[in-house]
Design a protein that fits this description.
About 50% of the residues lie in helices and about 15% in strands. The chain is built from 10 helices and 7 strands. The longest helix has 29 residues. The protein is globular. Belongs to the short-chain dehydrogenases/reductases (SDR) family.
């Protein structure tokens, strides 16, 4: 694996860092010697994680409790990290609604689009511009396998937001490559995160793959950064990606919900 600090700079910024994939990214990056800026809504979770990490590493850890879905939150974050050498940004914060599109409020759908698409767009634009100027940096977009399916009934806004994120990331991968900036999309399948375990109404036993733990997903993502445009962890997830694109995208969501 590459020397992250030498390649990207001193700080890695991780959004959605208080649990799940974000927490695991923080743990692994600290082990790799990266100083951290951890961003999430829950200050208590962030502080507890920072305290744990500082027991086992000597890296500098800054925590920023912030709801990125709120207006002006991205500007507030930029102000708080101004002057820091932020060379790697993990765009992980996300939310979702499940169930029929019309049975969820329009406000909840807009919140999904804001946090999953608008916020990473703004962060990628802000930090990506600075990385291009410096001639180095890394952006890792945490998308989802579901974003590559032809359609995803009962997770419509989430899948649409992740499809957008994947398309944006792939375009930026091409645009920034000549400037020495690595851009990679992580598109995991079902992963044992807090959000996954709190989902109701979905029969995951009908999936062809078993949920993965966060550790191998994050390991594969960081190993692929700078080497691959897209990382899809797991053999079955890669096979399902093929099926989702070309065979069964329109029916997969209905099968999960027993419709």
């Amino acid at each position: 694996m590459i020397d992250f600090r030498s390649r990207y700079g001193r700080y890695a910024l991780v959004t959605g860092a208080s649990a799940g994939l974000g927490e695991e990214f923080a743990r692994r990056l600290a082990a790799l010697g990266m100083d951290l800026i951890l961003v999430a809504r829950r200050a208590d979770k962030l502080d507890a994680l920072a305290s744990q990490l500082q027991l086992s590493s000597k890296v500098d850890i800054k925590t920023i409790a912030l709801d990125l879905a709120l207006p002006d939150s991205v500007d507030a974050l930029k102000k708080q990290v101004k002057g820091l050498d932020v060379g790697l940004v993990i765009l992980n914060a996300a939310t979702l609604t499940v169930g029929s599109f019309l049975d969820n409020s329009v406000e909840s759908q807009e919140n999904v689009v804001t946090l999953n698409s608008v916020v990473p767009t703004r962060l990628a634009h802000a930090f990506g511009g600075e990385m291009r100027r410096k001639g180095r940096g890394g952006l890792l977009f945490v998308s989802s396998l579901i974003g590559y399916q032809a359609a995803a009934p009962y997770q419509a806004s989430y899948a649409a937001s992740k499809a957008y994120l994947s398309a944006l990331s792939l375009a930026m991968h091409v645009e920034l490559k000549e400037f020495g900036v690595d851009v990679t999309t992580l598109a995991p399948g079902p992963t044992l995160t807090e959000g996954f375990q709190n989902m109701v109404g979905i029969d995951f036993s009908k999936l062809p793959m078993k949920p993965m733990s966060t550790q191998p997903v994050v390991r594969l993502a960081l190993e692929g950064l700078g080497k691959r445009a897209i990382v899809i962890p797991g053999v079955m997830n890669n096979f399902t990606d093929f099926l989702g694109k070309y065979v069964m995208g329109r029916v997969s969501g209905a099968k999960l919900f027993g419709a």
